[in-house]
Structure formats: C-alpha cells, structure tokens
Amino acid sequence: MQDAQITRADELPEDELMLAGNRSCAGCAMSLMYRMALKALGKNTIITVPASCLTVLHGLYHKTSVALNVIHTTFETTAASASGIVAALEVLGLADKITVVGFAGDGGTSDIGIQGLSGAAERNTNFIYACYDNEMYSNTGTQRSGQTPYMAYTTTTPHGKVEHKKNIPMIMLAHNIPYIATTCASYPLDVYAKFKKAKQFKGTRYIHVLAPCPPGWTFPADQTIAIGRLAVKTGIYPLYEIIDGKMFLSKESETFIDPKKRLSVEDYLKKQGRFKHLTQQHIATYQEYINAQWDFINKML
To answer: Are the beta carbons of 212 and 24 closer than 8 angstroms?
Structure first.
C-alpha cells in the first residue's frame, strides 16, 4: 500500500467537511484531528458516533458542524452501529462507494464499547474505527477510563490512577485485522495520511489518535500541539502502523527507537496539572514503562 503523498499543509485538499464554528473547547485536539480525518475520508462517508465530546462538536439538533451524514448512537454501540450501516449499504449495493467510520472516545472504545468493537473485528466487518484518546471521560467531567495513564488525576482517581493504560492497538492486533495505526492530533499530516491509507484496505481497520485535552489534562489551551508532540518525543506515545500483522514505525517516531534521543518524560508530565502530585519514584516508574514499551516494539519490528 502506498502512503498518501502529502508532505506539506498546502497540499491538503481544500474542501472543508468540518464547517466553521463548533462547540468544542478552546485548544481541543479532537477538533484538529477530526478536520484532518474528514479531509482524508472525503464526502462519500457515513460517520457514527456515541455520546462523547464529538457529539458536542457536532452540535444540537437540527444544526450540525459537519457536511456529512452522521448517526449519533448510544454510548456502547459505535461498532454495532457501524456494522449495521455496512450491512444496509451491502443490501443497497453501495458498500464499495461509501466509507463507514465509527469515531468514539477512549471510554466509549476501551471500556463500554469494547465488546461491540471486538465482535466486529472478529467478523472483520468492513469499516474504519477511530478512537480519539483524551485519556479520560472528558465530556462528563473527567472521570477515569481504561486509557487514563498511571497516576493521572481524575475526579474518580483523586490520588492518581494506579494502573497503566490499556493497550487497545495491541488488543486489536490480536483480532488479525488488516490495518492498525496510532497517530496524534499534534501531527496533522500524519493523521491525514493514516486515515487516507486506511481507506485502501477492506475489513475492520483501527486508528488510535492521541488527543490532548486542555481542561482535562490541565494545561493552557495554546499548548495543545506542544503537549502532543512531547508525548511522541519522550517515547511515551509511539506512532506506528501495523499492516497485516507487520509493524512499521512512522517517521515521527523512528528517531526515538534510540533511547538517548528521547526527551525526558518529566518534561511531559510536569506541564500537566493532572500530574502535579507525582514523586520522583512515579516518574521513574513512567520511564520503566516507556523502556518496556520500546523493548516490545523492537521485537515487533
């Protein structure tokens, strides 16, 4: 499969499928990611979303902030909704003409929605599933999710979560689906390229997008891009693709296979209020987690 040949922002399609003005927070990484994803997906797309920050972005009936057909579904049913849309398109003979995409947050993916996602992936149902990961239930007041990282403050983990993140991309790898990717809203061209590439495959495709959340993570709204890039440059969030079971590091993360080239994880953690209570031992545990993650990646390459 060929990469989408976009290397500069001025080469992106001019069509704007996310309209001007929406109800997302200032500095919202999800809205930045969504704009790039829609450019890659194009007009012949049907999107389904559960209760989430994305329903807030879309707006209240009868107005919307996107120029596409969007179906809002219940919290746990994104993959089931997408599966139903695919089945309907197959009956109508339109399955090869329209791309079906489920967009859900980390809670709606790794927790309440994982049953439907696993079932669809086991059947290799023909749609793209994208998780925008702001590492908590941001839309309902920043509660802990399966994607909340170690020792992060949330309203339900006031002293910090004691577990590391659930590794959803690796869970999806166990389903033997054809395409898996990680990306980050702070790298818009990478977001565009991976959604564009996902369209080239048939079956269930999964894209995990890190989406820094200023109010939930507690950092200034103008620091969204910088925080996301720190996540990549410290090695805590590697960018990669897995195509038919084979992993490929993205160019933004290739440098950081060398641990000496990674930035200090402390720089990333201390810029976020949700980690203000961390001790040096907690930071050392983070470094051990990063090292173990990259050891695993090295074995997969």
So the answer is: no
Domain range for 228 is: 14-300
Identify the pLDDT of residue 2: 44
For residue 6, the model assigns a pLDDT of 67
Sign, CA dihedral 147-151-153-158, equals positive
In Å, what is the CA distance from 162 to each residue of 151, 153, 171?
6, 10, 21
pLDDT < 50 regions, the chain: 1-3
Check: CB of residue 95 under 8 Å from CB of residue 46: no
- Determine contact, residues 150/289, Cβ cutoff 8 Å: yes
Establish if 8 belongs to a structural domain.
Answer: no
Alpha-carbon span 258 to 115, nearest angstrom: 37
How many structural domains are present in the chain?
1
